[in-house]
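User: For my dataset I need records formatted as: sequence, then structure tokens, nothing else. Please produce one.
Assistant:
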Amino acid sequence: MIAILDYKAGNQTSVLRALNFLGIPACITDDDKTIMNADGVIFPGVGAAKQAMDRLTSKNQDSLLRELVRQKKPLLGICLGCQILLDYSEESSTKTLGIIPGVCKKFDETWTDGCDEHNVPEKIRIPHMGWNSIAIKKDSPLFHNIQSGSTVYYVHSYYPEPQDNNLVLATSTYGKEFTAVYGTDGLWAVQFHPEKSGKTGLQLLKNFCGYCAAASK
């Protein structure tokens, strides 16, 4: 069973729908016992960092997440969940979970990405919204049957920057190269939305859940 952490921050239902499609037992829950007994935990989210942290701390779910990591329970952060696993977010100058050292930064509206029909550099639009390719930098169980250059779906104005570059598993480029996936075996975070990323996203979720099943034995 995969537990999808419910902290009233968005895309839990779409993650559950994706897992149901894959035939993977899962539930959306805020019950500590259910979460701790799950084979693995998905920590999704959309919205603002400060609001999310307020919700987590109000129910002591910040401590729950730290305990999951301490006990080496497989954990996958998605989008906002990816961002707030780090120490700090520039969004409302928010102190975040601090599970993995690093910061979350805002895209700079002066950056450019590509050129128009007159070969004039075009400034990026914020939020970064739509499909973009990933460049895989390190092997990971998450990437089984996923090729570098595969496309995934993004909706974000901020991007994660782990302190340890060795934790960067894949990147995308939008104005600059930024971290798309970071972590280590059993503790991962993805900035894009795998539940909205077609076959690539479904494969990544399948890989995570397969890792969880193997780890629980």
